[in-house]
Task: structure prediction
Amino acid sequence: MDENYKKSYKGFVLWLVLFFAVHIFGAEPLISMVEENYSVYASLSLTLIFLDILTYVIYKTEYIYWYNGMSYDTARKASSGARKEYAHRHLIKFVYASIMWLFYGILKSLTGIKLWVDVLVFCALIIGAALSTITVRLEDN
Result:
């Protein structure tokens, strides 16, 4: 058990505030200057980037209890290595979703896919990444 492992949601709250602030005040004015067919793609790309940042922060801080289904007590009882491995497996799933989104963006630019397909593909990638984490287990070394 790691006695130095403290429970804190400050980083998560900061991430939430930055996520909404960037989307509302920073990104939306810039995205509005992009061609309409790419504005939704750009906004959803920003969302994926923020999800990747969140999973990376969880990996670096080992605050795996921020994930749904993981209690603070369970996380605290696990070794640092086990927490890192658990967080790393989540991070990889969301990074893969982002890479697939990037390839979709290239395909979109070559074919002119409609924006409603952007939303459909985005939802499928996020739901797929989230569901794929169900099998990730915390295994103490």
